[in-house]
TrEMBL record:
InterPro entries associated with the record: HTH_MarR-typ, MarR/SlyA-like, WH-like_DNA-bd_sf, WH_DNA-bd_sf
Protein name: MarR family transcriptional regulator
Pfam family, one: MarR_2
Species whose genome carries this gene: Paractinoplanes lichenicola
UniProt-listed SUPFAM superfamilies: Winged helix' DNA-binding domain (SSF46785)
Superkingdom of this protein's organism: Bacteria
SMART domains, per database record: HTH_MARR
């Protein structure tokens, strides 16, 4: 019998594969998709965005530059400090991230199609409770967090 940790990692791999597949269908890398998801509801400063995404600022800068070249995001320097950069979605980026969200919501749960309805409902309940307990900014973006 496989240990619980190994089972969790295996499930994570299956989910990440499905996620990468969905991202590719939208011509996005998973990192670009994560960036769009983080700024979907509001612009965010680079200084605040880097730790939320688990990236160093130079890596985030490169990601933002590439996303900007694709027309997904825009950078602005509010106020007098030109070093302070805020990233937001463009209309194209917003449309892309909304379509991405819809496809993720429709496709990722398909991984559970082989579970009976009661098992699927139990899994969803446990997963929601786990997401609440983790308090991750990826799971619970807070308005005004950026």
């Amino acid at each position: 019998m496989t240990g619980f940790g190994i089972t969790m990692v295996g499930l994570s791999v299956l989910i990440q594969r499905r996620y990468a597949q969905i991202c590719a269908e939208h011509d996005l890398t998973p990192a670009q998709a994560q960036l769009l998801c983080m700024i979907k509801d509001q612009p965010c400063g680079m200084r605040e965005l880097a730790p939320l995404m688990g990236m160093e600022r130079p890596g985030l800068t490169g990601l933002v530059i590439r996303a900007e070249k694709l027309g997904l995001v825009q950078r602005d320097s509010p106020g007098r400090d030109r070093r302070a950069v805020v990233v937001s979605t463009t209309p194209f980026g917003q449309k892309t991230v909304e379509a991405l969200y819809a496809d993720i919501d429709a496709s990722v749960p398909d991984l559970l199609n082989d579970l009976p309805a009661a098992g699927r409902a139990s899994f969803e309940h446990v997963l929601q409770a786990l997401a609440e307990a983790m308090k991750s900014p990826m799971l619970h973006p807070k308005p005004g967090a950026c």
